[in-house]
Description:
The protein is an alpha/beta fold. It is 31% helix and 21% strand. Helix 11 crosses helix 13 and helix 23 (758-767) packs across helix 24 (769-786).
Amino acid sequence: MSKKKLVVIGAGMASGRALEHLFEAEPGVWDVTLFNAEPRGNYNRIMLSPVLSGEKSYGEIVIHDDAWYAENDVTCRFGEKVVSIDRAAQIVTGENGAVPYDKLLIATGSAPFIIPLPGHDLDGVIAYRDLEDTNRMIDAGATPGARAVVIGGGLLGLEAAAGLRLRGMDVTVIHIMGHLMERQLDEAAGYLLRRELEGRGIKVMVSTNSQEILGKGGKVSALRLDDGTELPCDLLVMAVGIRPNVALAKDSGLAVGRGIHVDDQMVTSDENILSVGECIEHNGAVFGLVAPLYDQAKVVAKTLTGEAAQFVAKEISTKLKVTGCDLFSAGDFADGEGREDIVFRDPARGQYKRLVIQNDRLIGAVLYGDTADGNWFFGLIKDGTDIAEMRETLIFGPAYQGGAASDPLSAVAALPDDAEICGCNGVCKGTIVSAIQGGAADLPSLKSATKASASCGTCTGLVEQLLEVTLGDAYAAPASLPICGCCDLTHEDVRRLIKSKPLKSQPAVWQELGWKTPNGCHVCRPAVNFYLLADWPLEYRDDPQSRFVNERKHANIQKDGTFSVVPRMWGGITNAGELRAIADAADKYNVPTVKVTGGQRIDLLGVKGSDLPAIWADLNKAGLVSGHAYSKGLRTVKTCVGTDHCRFGTQDSTGLGIKLEQILWGSWTPHKVKLAVSGCPRNCAEATCKDVGIICVDSGYQISVGGAAGMDLKETERLTDAATEAEAIELTTAFVQLYRENAKYLDRPYKWVAKVGLDWVKARVVDDLAERARLVAAFELSQTIYRNDPWAEHVSQQADRYAPLADLTLEAAE
C-alpha cells in the first residue's frame, strides 16, 4: 500500500506539533515533505528571549532535530520558499522543484509588522521574530557602548529590551500607550512593571510616538520622536505586533480575511488543504499565543486521520515572566458599570493583586509579583463560580477560604483533574498526575512525558507543586523553591548561611534563620542535619532522629516491613569465611531471599526488625561491616579483576577499588555515591555510568564523573587523567569532598555537576593543587569521626530501641 502524500508549508511550532500527533496516530502511513523558508526545522520561538539574553543556546531550544525528521521519513526542504500552489493539480512548487500532494497543510505563521516610518529600511532596523533577528541583536550587543531603541512595550518588546540589556547595551523602550502591556495589565500593574524594568537599567518612555528613523551612511543612527526628541541608537527593534502571513494562500485562491479561513476541522475553503497556527482565521478570530495553536494541531492530526474533531477557541489566561517579573492576567479587567474591585498591595514586596467582580462572579484578575493562585482565579472565571460566600477572603486565594490558612499546597491539590496547568501545550492536571504516578518523578522526566513546562516555563512552579503533592516526602524540591514550608529559604540559602553566620546546631538554625516551626519537619531536618555535619564535623554531632528510616535502622526497609541487610565486600572481593558467615546468618534468622546485587555484594532480604541487632552482631564477629546500602553516602566500588587475573588488564583495578572503598566508606554525602574501576577500556565494571568511574589504561588512570544509570541515564564526563594510583585516589577524594561541601541535599553528583559546570569542578579539583590538598584534608578530618561501622556501635544495645514501624516519622526516600 502506497503512502499518502502530505506537504507541509512552514516548520513552526504548530505544524511540528501536528506532525507529532499524526505520526503517533498513524506511524508509517504518510509521506511528508516539509518546506520552510528558514534554513532550519522546528524550534521553540517562545525561548528566543533566553537565547538573546545568553541563558540558553539555540541547540537547547530545538524541538525537532535532524534525527527526528529522519526517523519519521520527513523530506526536509529547509531554506526553500514555496512559489505557488496548483490546487487543481494538487502540486506545490518550491524554488527547487514541485511536489504533488494528497493533503496540504499551510502553516506559514505570521510576519512582524513594520511601522512605515521614514527610514524603516535602514540597516540596523529589525523586527524580533526569528533566530536571524536574535543573532543580529546578539551581534549588536557585542560592541562596547552600543545603544538600542525598542519600539513596543508589549511582551515581545520587553523581552527584546531585557535581553539586549543583559548583553550590555544601553536600552530605551518606546511605547505609544499610557502603560506597558496594556492588553494584559491594568495601569497599576503596568506601573510596577515599569519600575522593575527601570531598576534593571532599562529606560521606559510611555505615551510616546515615533516620527522618523534617522540614519548615516545607510545605517540607523537615531529615532526622532514627535516632540522633536532624538534618541541615538545603533540598533532599532520594532516589536509592535504581527500579522497572519496569507500571501501564498491568497494567491492560490483560498478564502482569506485577516487570516486563512478555516472551519472547526481546520480545513480551508479547499477540502484537501488544511491550515494551522498564526496564519489562520477561525470564526473571526486570529491567534498569537501557543496554547490555542497546539489545540489546533491536535484537530489537524485527527482530521487527517479521519477521526472526528472540532476546534473550539477557549478562554485563556496569560501568565508571563518578563525579565524575572511574575505577571498573571485573565478575563476582563477593564472598568465598567456594575463592577467592583478588590485590591491588595504590598509595597515592600512589590506585590499587587486586583480582582474584578460582577454579579457575585469573578470576571477578571490581574496579579503582579505573586502569581501562585492565578490558575485558581482563572478556574473561578472560566466556571462562573458564585463567589458570594468567599467574598471576604477571595483576594487571599484558595488557602484562606473559610477564614483560616491551610497547607500552602492545598490550592493545587484542590484543582480538578481537567484544570489546565500548561497553557502552551494544553496539559491538564490529570495528565501530569498520571505521568507522576507512572514514574515521572522529577521535572525533566515530566517534561519528556507530558510536555508540561517544556515551552515558556511559566507553569514550572505549578508542575513542581503537583510533583510535591503527588509524591509527598519522596519528592526533593528544586533549588528554586524554599527547602520546605518551615522557612522561606532555599537549600542554597540555608547552606550558605550555616557557613557564614556560622551556625553549628539545629536550634541555632531554627532561631537565626527564622524557621516557622519549633524544630523543623521531616523534609528540612534531614537536609539541615547533613549540612551541619558536612560543614562542622568537629563541632556538630549527627542527629539520628533527623535521618530517614533506612539510615536510622542501618538497613533497607522493604514493602512488607522487613529489612534488607547488605554486608560490605571491599571492591567486590570476599572469601570463604565471609560467605560461610553470611550463609549461617541466613539460616539462623530464616532469611527468605539471598541475592547477589549489581554492586558485587550479597543482600539478605526479609530480615525482621527485631532480629537486626543480633544479625549485625553475628556478621561483625566474622569481620563484616555495614555496606551502607541504605545511606546517603558511599554505596559500592565495583571492580573487575584487572591485572590479577585478566590477560587484558592494564592496572590493578581490584586493588585500587578496595583502597578507594576503604578510604571513602562511612562518609555522609548529599545523596548516594557509587564508584567503579575497570582494569582496561573494555570496561567490565561499567565505570562510565557511575558517580565516579575510573578506567585503567597503559599510561595510568582515566577519571570521569557525573554518570547515572537509574531513572536518568547519563554517561560520565572526563575529569582528568592520573599517572599514578595515589594521584587517582587523591583526585577522587577531592571530588567527593567538593560534592559534599557544595551540593544540595538529595542531588546526585550528575545533577550537581550539571548545575555548577564541569569546568568549575576541574578548576578546583584538578588545576588548583592547594585547593585539592585542602579538600583531601577536610575529607580526612571528617572521616576521623564518621569512618566507623554503625552495626558495631549498635551491637551492645537492646533490641527494644528499634521502634515499631508505625512509630517512625520519616519515610524512606531511596
